[in-house]
Structure formats: structure tokens, C-alpha cells
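Lecture 7 notes. Example A: sequence first, then its C-alpha cells.
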Amino acid sequence: MSRPEPPIALAYSADADDAFMFHALRAGLIDTGGFSFTHWRGDTAALNRLALGERVAGGPQGDPDVTADVIAISAGVYPRVAARYQLLPHGASVGRGFGPVVVAERPMDPAALAGARVGIPGLTTTAWLVLRLIQPAAVPIEIPIVPFARIFEALEAGEVDAALLIHEGRLLYRDRGLHKVVDLGEWWLGAAGLPLPLGVNVIRRGLGADRIRALSAVLRESIRFALDHRSDLIAALAAEDRGEKRLSDPVLLDRYLNLYANADTLSFAPDARDATGVLFDRARAAGLLTGDVPLDWAP
């Protein structure tokens, strides 16, 4: 008698776009094709560490060599995990003329970030990779994304001179009287003429080609379901405890999902795929990445 296949370990963030695309699986709303799933949610830096093979406190358990089967990671960390993971052709967060923003308490030019202390969400994030292309002399100060308000408190307390905001924070800084220094997606569009790939989903190569193909189809269907039932999904996300009341505001969720849970999430568009390669090429040319890692897309 054959043993049942172990559940597929999913790891993704608590942010609205990740919660949106995995909700149908979590709530049992679609046919999973015989797959069962476990769900683990952590911040972006922790997810990147999982993909890098590191153990994370409170993270997925099981085989010590397997941290998770499908992980939502920063696009910029993919070259370092490509030996173990393929890129999925869906699940992406893409900024089309917008992206993470650097903000400060006073008006500031990006050139003034040289030598400035910048609060960042993690050294492995795409946002930090792109900021180093803009201003390589910025000094990073890692500040966890959770609790949500911590980055704003660090800025107000003078612990940092500027703050690099990802996720919902980019929609809220004006409410706090902060000034935009640079929008990374705007800068990238001007520099490369392309959208900015920020987050990607990856799948473990060790699952094998047949399971990867079948699982990819199920994951795509979860995203399609969310897009087809968008209003219902927003209501479900608004009912979650998101750590701060404002993050559960349906109006904010709608604005945020317009940015990062859309057609680009359902299918990684050709220009966004091209942009991923261009980003890695420019990062290598700047000495920020090593090795020529080909982009390897799962079905």
C-alpha cells in the first residue's frame, strides 16, 4: 500500500496580496487536484531566509533539508536560491511605474541618501537591491516589518534618516506628513523603461516535474478564483487581524490590491519577465549579484 503524499508546505506573507492569492486554498474553495496544504506566514525577510535554506523560528517543520515547497520571495533573492527553486509563472508582484518608496521627515533629494541611515525591511529584499542601484552609499538599518508601525516610529525617533517602505506602508506615509524621496518603480521605469518585478513565487525543484506542473495549475486557479471573487476576498481579508486597524480598511485593501494583485499576478507578462532579467543583469554589473543565473520558469 502506497503512503500518502505529504502536504505541500506553502510559505507566504501576511500582506494583502499574498493572503489574496492563497485564500482559496486556505479556505478550501477550489479543487486542489488531490493536493493538501500547510500554510505558514511570515515577513518578507523570513521568507527569503527560508528559500535560502535557513531555519526560521516558528517556521515550517519537517525534513531538515526542506523549508517549504512554495515560497513567496523577493525577486532580488532568486539568483541565490535558483539551484533549489524554479520561478512560478504566476503570483508575482509587479510595479508598473510605481513601487516601494523611500520617505523622510523633510524634503530630500535621492543624492542626499549617500551616507544616510535608511531603515529597510531586509537586506535580501528587491527594494534594497534597487535602492543600491540608485544610491549605493546609503547605509542600511534593518527594521522588521512587524509590527507595522515600527518603521515609522524609528523615523520619528531619529533612529534613521529615511525609510524604505514596502507593502501597505507605501500608501500611508502621506497621512503621517512624510515626504517622498524616491519611488523605486518610477525610477526603474525611467532607467530601464520596464515594470519593476518585486515579489515572485518559487517552487521546489525536488517535487519533480510532474508534481510541479500539476501544482502550478492549482496555484494559478487559486489566483484566478481570487480575481473572479475580488469583492468577497476583500471582505474576507478585512475581517482578518492584520496587526493594525487601518490595514483592514476595505478601501485601503482595494487600493493595495489594485497595485499588486492583478493580471500580473495571474500571469507573469513578457515585459515583466524581461525586466527580471534586466534587473539581475544591472545588479551584476554593479557588483551586487554574482554569477550568471538563467531564469528558469516552471510550467
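Example B, a different protein, same format:
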Amino acid sequence: MADQTSEPVPAPSDDPLPPNIRRRIQTLFGHGQKKFQEGECDYAHDMFSQCVAKDPGNLVYVEAMFDNLIKKFDKNKKRGRQKGNRGAFKKAVAAEDWPKVWTLGLELLKHHPWDVPALRALAEACEKHKFNEVELRYLKGALDADGKDIEVNRHCATSLTRMGQFDQAIACWHRIEDRVPDAAAKISELTLAKNRPAVGIDLDDENRNADKTPSTTRAVKEETAPSSSSPDPPAAPTTMEELRIAIAEDPTEVSHYKALAKLQDAAGKYLEAETSLQRALSVAGGDLNVRELLESAQIRRKQAQLEVAKQRAATENTEEAKELEQRIKEELNRLELEIYDARAQRYPDDLAIKHELATRLKRAGNHAEAEKYYQAVQSDDQRGPAATLNRGECLQHMRQYLDALKCYVRAAKSAENQQPEVEKLALYRAGVLAIGLKDAGKARDYLSKLVAKDPGYRDAQTRLDKLSEMSDT
């Protein structure tokens, strides 16, 4: 296949991709996964790198690209060769020409996925565009290449500190503590700052149980196991360590990865759970059930990061902490939007998925697309009233005021005596919009009905009083 990297990468945007663009990228991603499973790694890289270039903040695409490259080089770092336009790449980095950095950097990684300068530059590009998750993935690649490099660890520690992931930042400083004069001071500062668990990339995961090899662990079990002339079959592995041993013995058993991920998730080790499911997905050949487990794990990890960011913002009350909370909130919505859009394509008749997708589209400000999905959900008995209300809000944003008012009235009627909060909000929205449309009669009807149900609801009584005053003058 012709090299795709000559096509310039568009400047990244913080705005969500339009659904039609996202679907085209997902099609490319599907082709890449197929070629990955067939062992056509160069072809797969062309597909995955196009996905990354068009949506550089998408961790799923970046992880798939790395998985493919690691498979291509059979985890052998010495097989990589520094090919590509190195001079032009350095100039692009110096000029902070980030679209060009992505174009040339992805080409460099094709020939050497452990190219530390390329990985660090791509991480820097992610930092400038606030792609936190992907930034850490590139830095993890740089650490995999040389875990003792001073500048790599310093870079990782700085990024992790900025994201409030203090434990991991401390681990980076510890690696270079004996060679960097200010490392001890940095560790002390971060230890003071660390007043709650951090969520993020565990950069020491592979070394955590280095002294517990499968053979030694089995030996301990055999020494402590009761003797029997007719031993029972071995029990299924139930602990993380047992499951890691089982995976080492049979890397093709998908159930072990899934069980391990479930335990890791329950323990709050969200990245480890995600990694286990990524491996399960590779082993299972893209099995849909595993894919959806992975998607849900990705959402939970981002939700956990958001919770940490919220706590930090509430405690520190600094602009930096508030910006981090807002950034992670936007990243979570982007991730959920992509996942629910993919699921809506898989299950076109599932109204629950359409409702979730519409909510993320509305949250992202894509009211026109959200309105279409809300309209499709209106027939659902459970979600219909809320969907109709939200559709009205979308139409109001689009300045289709009469249609919006009809939606509010319909939502209030369908929610009556069943979903009181939806009913009250729909009546309030209808009343306020009717005032804006200078239809005092309808506004009075809607707000009067609302006040009868809940006299203290927002400023409904105040608005109703003003309408009465206007009618008296």
C-alpha cells in the first residue's frame, strides 16, 4: 500500500469530531484491526497511523498502533532502525509545528517504535493540545525504551505531576535519585502533595512482581498443598498472582485476562485492567464482548481520574486544579461520545444507547446531531419523556422555538405522575420559552401548573408574579 504519511496532518482541535468523520475513522480502524490479526503489520500501521493523525487524542487508536508495532518487531528493540526524515522532524519540533510533528513522528515510529526523541516530541505535542492520556502513552513508550534515562524520567515526572498523579511521578524521581541532585527535594514535595490516591499509568507494573516468578510461586504452592493419593484437579485461579501465572502458562486463554481485569478494576487499578483487556482483545481476535468490556474499563478509568481531579480542585481551589478538572471532564465526554457512537452503529435498534449518545452530543454542543437521536428515543416508555425534553432544548439552541415549545409540552404530559422531575423541568422550560415568545397566556398556564406541583421550584413563582403584574397594567 502507498505510504499515507505524506498527507499533512490537520491541526488538532479540542472540539469533538463530527459523527460522519468519526465513522470514517472507525472504518479505517476496523481495516487496521483486520490486517493486524492477519499479521500484515505494515499495512495495519498505515491504517492505525491515519486514525491517530486524524484523531491524535484518541488513546484507543494510539494503543492499537503500538500493539501492532510491538508485534511487528516481536518486542525486539534492537530490530528498530532510525529511518525517516530526521532533520525535518527536528525542525518541526523546534518550530512547534505540531501537525508536522505528528506527520513525521508517526513515520519515524513505523521504523522504530522505541525512538525516544520521537516519542518525547509526540508527548510534547499532546501536552500542548491537552491530550493527557495519549501523552502518558508516548512517555511510557520512552520509558520502555530506556527506563533509566534521566531526561525521560524527568519528562515523565513533570507530566505526571501536572496531572496530579503523584505516586507515579515519585516513582520516576526514585529511578534517577542517585544521579540527579534535586530528585530528593522533588520526592519530598510530591509526598507532601499526595493526600489521596492517584489514578493513572502505573509505570512500574512490569517490575512489581519481579521476584515472584511462576516457577517459584508454584513451588511454594506444591510445598503447602495437602498430599493425596488421588489429587483433585487444580482449582481455577482466583487471585491476581494466580491469574498472571495462568496467563504465563497459557497466553491464549481469554477468560484469564477477563478475570484478572475484573480483579484489577475492583482494586482501583484501572490502567492495569485496561491493559489486561487490551491483551484479551488481541488474543480473542477482536471479540465484541471483550471490546465492550475494554470500552467500559476505559470509561471507568477516566471517571476515576475525574473524581480525583474534582477532589483536588475542591481542596486546592487553584486555577490549575480547576482547569485540570474541566479538561478531564471534556476528555471523558469525548471518550464516551466515541464509544456510544460505535455502539449505536453496532446496535441500531437499541434506544438506550441512542439516548446515551444523544446526551454526549448535546453536552459537546452538537445540538443538531443530538436532536436526531433524541427524536428516535421519544417512543421509549422509560426514556421518552427525558428524550423529548432534551430534544426541545436542542431545538431551542437551534432557534426552532415553536418546535421546542411543542417538545416541552409533550414531555410534561408524558412524564405526568410518573417522572416528576422531568415533568417540572419541562413545564418550567415551556413557561420561560412562552414568555420569550410573548405568549403570556400559555406562559401563565405552564408556570401555574408547575407552582401548583412545587411552589418553590426555581424562580417559577417570581416569573408568574411578573406576568400577573403585566396583565394588571
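Note on Example B: The chain has three domains: 1-139, 238-335, 350-472. Residues 440 and 471 are 9 Å apart (CA to CA).
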